[in-house]
């Protein structure tokens, strides 16, 4: 009869059951708990000093007034939701959280998908990712220069004015005006300048203007020509001013320059019969006009200020401008993460969909996006956390005059505590409020990491 190996064991002589011969011994992988504690202790101490203690102290300090000696309870938190300036700060943070993460994620996705179809994808990724090597403070300095109002200094307005000047041939002279008095052949009319007497072909029309600043005079302005070429209705528009006061009023002197790019109209019976533009020496000529008398007019468009771009650092555009700088910095980060996710997608799934007749848009929308959803969620949540704690870009780019309109919670926390407010009670309350806003997204990330480990 065969004895069962898994049956009860016979007791030993002292009455205790003898151990099974086939029971495997348990071995612990890695270091013992004591050694693990020794190695983790320095990190735990630093974590407590730099993270846990500041959080606990900030919560404690938020319950006291500015001096830290009077207990005020939740009064500081009440101030956050009742002060008008702080409400603007919360509104700006809400705009950041809604706009910036979506744009960064979408741009990163587009860059990642498109770079798979070009040969020089590595170079493109390097260029897009390069801003990540720049600190946010340095990026703020760069974009402060980019957004300068003067097109000669700011890149953004230099591009806008160049495009505008390409399609607009008129030169603005906002300070130009005719001389006052009956002796002047022209006078202001309807915001422009017009001749006092009717003009006819063969009689040169002289239109002198004054009041033009040196920085308004175009560089291509040539010496004015007193006698324009004959033929048709012609004349000269010039800057009637000679340095030193040696010139003759109403006459073209040798040192006086013409005003190029001015729009000139020939008006008859209240209707514009023809339009032309002055040359570099200020001369103009109308060809093909019917015989008769005409009023020569410089319309109001000549006296409007030239296009100087947008006021990026003004109250209306400051927040979108800073968000643009944020996107420039983080779009490369999103592109690299999403590109790694694209590389992990099984190509047979995409090819199978194409064989079944799916278009590229259908493949992208119904296969690529669902398979990339975990990576997209990582990028999106990370961008939300970064936007909630954004500080450097707003502090550097926004001028002091518009910082109240572009303020965010992190900057307001510093400004209230150390930037002149000297109210660390309210500053600590803002820090706790910011921590409360960030915690849900951090918990979401931790749970996602645990699910992936399982």
TrEMBL record:
Signal peptide annotation: none
Protein's membrane topology: Multi-pass membrane protein
Superkingdom to which the source organism belongs: Bacteria
InterPro entries named among the record's database cross-references: MetI-like, MetI-like_sf, Sdr_B, UgpAE/MalFG_permease
Region (Disordered): 1-23, 167-186
Main location as per UniProt: membrane
Keyword line: Cell membrane, Membrane, Secreted, Signal, Transmembrane, Transmembrane helix, Transport
GO cellular component: extracellular region; plasma membrane
Any one GO BP annotation for this protein: transmembrane transport
Pfam family, one: BPD_transp_1
Locations listed in the record: Cell membrane; Secreted
Record-annotated membrane-spanning stretches: 34-60, 94-114, 126-147, 317-346, 367-385, 426-446
Domain spans labelled ABC transmembrane type-1: 90-445
Gene3D superfamilies: MetI-like
PANTHER family recorded: BLL4140 PROTEIN, DIACETYLCHITOBIOSE UPTAKE SYSTEM PERMEASE PROTEIN DASB
Family named by the database record: Belongs to the binding-protein-dependent transport system permease family.
Name of protein: Alpha-glucoside transport system permease protein
Native source organism of the sequence: Nonomuraea endophytica
């Amino acid at each position: 009869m065969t004895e069962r190996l898994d049956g009860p064991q016979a007791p030993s002589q002292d009455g205790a059951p003898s151990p099974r011969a086939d029971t495997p011994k348990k071995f612990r992988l890695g270091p013992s708990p004591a050694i693990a504690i020794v190695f983790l202790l320095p990190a735990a101490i630093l974590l407590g000093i730099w993270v846990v203690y500041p959080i606990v102290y900030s919560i404690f300090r938020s319950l006291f007034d500015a001096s830290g000696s009077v207990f005020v309870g939740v009064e500081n938190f009440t101030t956050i939701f009742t002060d008008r300036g702080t409400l603007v700060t919360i509104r700006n943070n809400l705009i950041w959280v809604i706009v910036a993460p979506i744009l960064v994620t979408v741009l990163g996705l587009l860059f990642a998908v498109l770079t798979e179809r070009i040969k020089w994808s590595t170079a493109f990724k390097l260029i897009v990712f390069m801003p990540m090597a720049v600190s946010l403070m340095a990026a703020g300095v760069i974009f402060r220069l980019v957004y300068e109002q003067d097109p000669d200094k700011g890149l953004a307005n230099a591009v806008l004015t160049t495009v505008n000047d390409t399609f607009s041939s008129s030169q603005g002279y906002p300070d130009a005006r005719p001389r006052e008095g009956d002796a002047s052949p022209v006078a202001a009319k309807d915001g422009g300048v017009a001749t006092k007497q009717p003009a006819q072909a063969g009689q040169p029309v002289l239109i002198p203007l004054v009041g033009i600043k040196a920085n308004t005079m175009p560089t291509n302005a040539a010496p004015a020509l007193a006698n324009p070429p004959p033929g048709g209705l012609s004349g000269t528009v010039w800057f009637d001013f000679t340095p030193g006061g040696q010139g003759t009023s109403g006459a073209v002197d040798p040192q006086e320059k013409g005003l190029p790019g001015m729009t000139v109209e020939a008006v008859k019976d209240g209707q514009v019969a023809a339009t032309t533009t002055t040359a570099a020496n200020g001369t103009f000529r109308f060809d093909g006009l019917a015989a008769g008398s005409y009023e020569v007019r410089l319309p109001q468009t000549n006296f409007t200020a030239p296009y100087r771009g947008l006021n990026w650092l003004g109250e209306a555009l400051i927040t979108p401008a800073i968000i643009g700088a944020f996107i420039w910095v983080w779009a490369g980060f999103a592109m690299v993460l999403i590109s790694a996710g694209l590389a992990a997608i099984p190509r047979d799934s995409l090819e199978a969909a194409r064989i079944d007749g799916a278009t590229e848009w259908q493949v992208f929308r119904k296969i690529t996006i669902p398979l990339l959803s975990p990576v997209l969620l990582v990028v999106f949540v990370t961008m939300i956390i970064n936007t909630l704690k954004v500080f450097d870009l707003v502090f550097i780019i926004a001028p002091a005059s518009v910082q109240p309109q572009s303020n965010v919670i992190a900057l307001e926390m510093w400004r209230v505590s150390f930037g002149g407010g000297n109210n660390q009670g309210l500053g600590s309350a803002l820090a706790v409020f910011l921590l409360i806003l960030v915690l849900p997204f951090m918990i979401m990330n931790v749970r996602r990491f645990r699910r992936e480990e399982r």
